[in-house]
Backbone:
């Protein structure tokens, strides 16, 4: 809900009202609201896809319920904040440069998870508790270091708008959308065109067949988990571009990212993108015409409706 209300405020500032013949601001027409709601939903959906794709990899492809993923997104946001404030580097550049470090961090975390739980067959409940612990440790650590105040970054495009007819396009939303689509496109190419990518898709489907191809399932999962955490670095940078953040914001995204992952078909990156657009547009329309407090209910209502008709999700097999 925080993301919806924040984007609604950004579009309100970007909107250029029309004037009547006397020069006073005319009442915003329904068509104007409709177009802005669509654009806001699409831009929001692109960001949601970037936030969710890491869960698509871990939960959909590896069968690992990493509920701590939003905590790594917040870590990416605060790294972007610190470097931006102290060295003036663009947040997008920071997110991309930090991604390899997050990749290594993700591999190390999976190795701990595998050694302590998965290898012993205890990943169901104890593994879930492990990620709960990681979530709260990360959040408390960020609070101790940065406090509970909202933090933001500075960049030349933040605050700039492009006007196309009735629609104002805030650059602080357009830039994250473009970066998110680029990241998702590269990830899909990796998963569909490389040996390691196809192995990641196969690791939870047929472990024996993967071993017959001379691939170590644990090693493949380690790489995949690292890849999912690397996406959190970029998503965190995009989040703090869109609006100010504080350490506990990550919890707002736990239910939403899993809902988008399931709606898209669990293990499908294109499905994640489509589901994110659907949820984004639905939440944007709800926030525009009924208020942001109804947005989560509409999003999860759509999830239940789609799953009742297609239990495997939009692009699930």
Residues:
């Amino acid at each position: 809900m925080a993301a919806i209300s924040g984007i609604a405020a950004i579009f309100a500032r970007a909107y250029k009202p029309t004037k009547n013949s006397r020069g006073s601001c005319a009442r915003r027409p329904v068509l104007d609201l409709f177009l802005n709601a669509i654009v806001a939903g699409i831009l929001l959906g692109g960001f949601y896809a970037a936030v969710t794709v890491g869960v698509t990899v871990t939960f959909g492809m590896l069968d690992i319920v990493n509920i701590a993923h939003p905590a790594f997104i917040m870590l990416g946001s605060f790294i972007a904040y610190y470097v931006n404030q102290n060295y003036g580097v663009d947040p997008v550049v920071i997110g991309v440069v930090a991604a390899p470090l997050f990749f290594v961090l993700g591999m190390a975390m999976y190795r701990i998870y595998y050694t302590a739980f998965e290898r012993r067959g205890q990943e169901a409940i104890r593994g879930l508790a492990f990620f709960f612990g990681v979530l709260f440790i990360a959040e408390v650590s960020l609070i101790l270091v940065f406090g509970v105040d909202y933090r933001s970054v500075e960049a030349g495009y933040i605050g700039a708008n492009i006007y196309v007819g009735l629609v104002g396009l805030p650059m602080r939303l357009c830039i994250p959308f473009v970066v998110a689509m680029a990241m998702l496109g590269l990830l899909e190419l990796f998963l569909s065109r490389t040996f390691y990518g196809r192995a990641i898709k196969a690791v939870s489907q047929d472990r024996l067949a993967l071993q017959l191809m001379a691939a170590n399932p644990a090693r493949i999962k380690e790489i995949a988990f690292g890849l999912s955490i690397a996406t959190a670095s970029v998503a965190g940078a995009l989040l703090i571009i869109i609006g100010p953040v504080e350490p506990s914001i990550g919890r707002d995204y736990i239910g939403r990212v899993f809902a988008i992952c399931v709606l898209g078909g669990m293990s499908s990156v294109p499905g994640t993108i489509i589901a994110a657009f659907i949820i984004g547009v639905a939440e944007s329309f709800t926030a525009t015409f009924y208020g942001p407090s109804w947005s989560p209910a509409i999003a999860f209502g759509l999830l239940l409706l789609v799953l009742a008709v297609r239990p495997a999700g939009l692009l699930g097999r």
